[in-house]
Amino acid sequence: MKEGLTPKIVRREDYTPYPWQITDLRLRFEIDHRITTVTAEMDLAWLGDGEVGAIRLDGQCLELVGVELDGRPLRAGEYTVDADSLVIHEPARECSLRTQVRIRPQENTALEGLYASGEFLLTQCEAEGFRKITYFPDRPDVMTNYEVTLEADRDRYPVLLSNGNAVESGDSGDGRHWVRWCDPFRKPAYLFALVAGRLEHVEDRFTTRSGREVTLRIYVEPQNLDKCAYAMGALIRSMQWDEERFGLEYDLDIYNIVATDDFNMGAMENKSLNIFNSKYVLARPDTATDMDYQSIEGVIGHEYFHNWTGNRVTCRDWFQLTLKEGLTVFRDQEFTSDMQSRAVKRIQDVRDLRTRQFPEDAGPMSHPIRPDRYQEINNFYTMTVYQKGAAVIRMCHTLLGEEGFQKGMRLYFERHDGAAVTCDDFIAAMADANGVDLDRFGRWYSQSGTPEVRVRTEYRADEGRYIVELEQQTPPTHDQSEKQPLLIPFGIGLLTPEGAEIPLRLDGEEAAAGTSRLLVLDEREQRFEFVDVPCRPVPSLLRDFSAPVKLTYDYAPEDLEVLMRHDTDAFVRWEAAQLLAQRAIMNNRQAFREGREMQPDAGLERAFQALLSDRTTDPAQLAETMRLPGEDYLGDLMAEVDVDGLHAARNFTRTTLARSLENEFLRVYDLLDDGAAYNDSGASVARRSLKNVCLGYLADLPSGVERAQRQFRASDNMTDTVAALRALVHRKAPGHREALEQFEKRWASDPLVMDKWFVLQVTCPGADTVERVAELLDHPAFSLSNPNKVRSVVGAFAMLNPTGFHADSGAGYAQVADVVLQLDSRNPQVAARIASAFNGWKRYDESRRSLMRAQLERIRSASPLSADVGEIVGNALDDA
Ligand code: TRP
Ligand code: ZN
């Protein structure tokens, strides 16, 4: 933070309940595209024991027009207004307050509160956006009943939506009309929403298990009506699945989704009026990739599942964010696993956690899934709160089993439906429902950092005994120096060298039972002894990635080959291949650094040969297995990231595999590229995935470039188009410029497709890409006001292009910092996300370190600087 400015820190331990009950809230919006007038009437009752105190309401960027208490306009002195609050000094124990404010949605560039997107108006209130709409206690534990009247010009705003049911509507003369909405469920302000504009919708219906008829609508701008069908299907599947798997039904007669191009995040679960980034709604085979389809299903599910885990039971305060987010991510992961391939989904989630959450937890923003302090809550919608939070819920599920977990969920809803609660309440429900003690498990909520689990094994042939020693240790993090042992569920199996599963019997057990076990490590060090082990086994460790830890075990290369080919656990099979590739790349990186020649790796080649001739494994799983570990993941394994060495070694590995297995890659590619028309079945998705992984290897060779060119011309779907275009662009292959131009011409008017065009270019490896970034910032389709565009051009460059962002000139750093500074005053939330690209700065060589530090300091010294960016760069520079 700048001198003289002490950052305001909010602490979990300072929680105090709000002293007023707000029994009702009536809101009236007189909507105009330039100025909207908001009138709020609330009935309050004092909850505290002592003397009645003041009424303290949050409010920001509001122009106060009038305040009335119990029907009487208040005079100056009877209330105080400042930049973020309104205080009513001497209210009665029971009273009624009426405020009127004016707001300017058109000027709201932060996309928080009421703002404009194209021709329509919409809101985003989580976490603390409601205070930019009206004066109110903007905290999740203050819940009330909402009655909302929207009044606007009928031509400009024919559709007027809010939460709950539309109960009345009418004409108000002068070409204006009004609609009144009533939400029968009490809710916190962050779940409020309104939408007004000329939107069109698609409609479907769902009948709940108990016979409630629900109208489902997706509202979009007219040109997008033909891209809503998949999202609607996903919504219906979500509703069905939550009934079947969790026994949870929808609770209103209407469920609305609105898609907008201007959104800071993915989507928002406002009660019965979800608002989505259009990226997670709109899809047609020629505009969206298979991955986009999967994300749409996942995010539609996520927001729908929040209706129970988030809305019906919400958070007491924002430190408890993972209560709803970790749990809801776990639920959406399970949904996708049940709808698609469980194995593939697990691999994707593990990769995501390890490449994005692990580094976050080892850097300056490290925090427990339930943080203890923050400056700006928007900075805590993190990989840690979401993905590690989901991993913690998953461990709970693993320990209790599906039945025990569901028992816990039922008790959780029985106890807390309609309330704002804490993570401790959730754990207590799980523990009580199952009659177990989860105290030690609870440490996952308060301790940050990624635990390391070191494994040592010993086989005693004469005794037929196999000893497994587990040792855990969590390195100190930026926010916590002392670490305690955690409760770690550790999945394990044992294979014979031929790959057969060995029945498992732990010392002291009557007989062998099963071939997969869950060991529970809850001390620093523990020893487990398996008996009746007929031969030196190959250990299959951390099955299903049973805990979010870093595993250290010195696998023999031949053991990895056995695991990759034969293990029954999909994660372990994938991990074995990843480890083989990782070792090959790391060895060559060393060679590159020492000026030695890089060498092909015979073991890795053998492994790939096996993968390319595997005709039984799901092609989608094979595709995941053949994707080489990313430069980001590999870099995170090093004490000091070797940007150029890793890039060179990974490229070398890819190219040598392609060369020595060219025929095998071509055979698989040509087999899968069967010329059949696009089809959205899981089997076709899987085939495209493997085909395009093969293309990624082949594109290093002339035969592959030829296939990429052909695929680009012939493709009838966006998955194949983007894969081909990426292959051409990233190799700067002949014809790549023409292909880019052709693509641009065809899709210039589709913002989501243009985002892909941007990402493809800014992720092209190499120091010169920064110049392309600068050009694209001036492209007519780019806009600094649109978060998707900023993420596609600047975010993707900074996070997904190591040799571009970390170019040794420092030009990448300067470019990204320029954008952070330009964006800060417009949209601090998005600026802070981009600024976090510098979080890893201490992990690089001295020259890059000082270049990054200079940019961080440049950002920090800007004045004014938002609290959002201030917190990120402040933490990054802290104790530098
Ligand atoms: N609750 C949303 C979700 O995870 C997250 C979200 C949407 C959000 N928009 C936001 C968080 C804006 C902070 C700010 O589903
Ligand atoms: Zn969520």
* CATH first level of the domain at 1-198: Mainly Beta
Rg, please? 28 Å
What characteristic shape results from the CA principal axes?
globular
**Based on the structure given, which CATH architecture of the domain at 1-198 is correct?**
Sandwich
- Find the count of extended strands (DSSP E, 2+ residues): 31
Our estimate of the beta-strand percent is 15-25%
> Do you know the CATH topology of the domain at 1-198?
Immunoglobulin-like
> What summary fits the major beta sheet?
8 strands, mixed
Write structural notes for this entry:
The protein has 880 residues and is α+β, with helices and mostly antiparallel strands. Among the domains are: 1-198, tricorn interacting facor f3 domain (Immunoglobulin-like, Sandwich); 314-445, Neutral Protease Domain 2 (Neutral Protease, domain 2), CATH 1.10.390.10; 452-547, Sandwich (Immunoglobulin-like); 748-880, Zincin-like fold (Alpha Horseshoe), CATH 1.25.50. It contains 25 helices and 31 strands. It has an 8-stranded mixed beta sheet, with no helix packed on it. Strands 17-18-19-21-20 form a 5-stranded mixed beta sheet, with helices on one face. The chain has a 4-stranded antiparallel beta sheet with strand order 10-11-16-13, with no helix packed on it. A hairpin with a 5-residue loop joins β2 and β3. α1 (229-246) crosses α2 (290-305). It is globular. The relative contact order is 0.06. Zinc ion is lined by residues 302, 306, 325, 328. InterPro entries: Aminopeptidase_N-like_N, Aminopeptidase_N-like_N_sf, PepN_Ig-like_sf, Peptidase_M1, Peptidase_M1_dom, Peptidase_M1_pepN, Peptidase_M1_pepN_C, Peptidase_M1_pepN_C_sf.
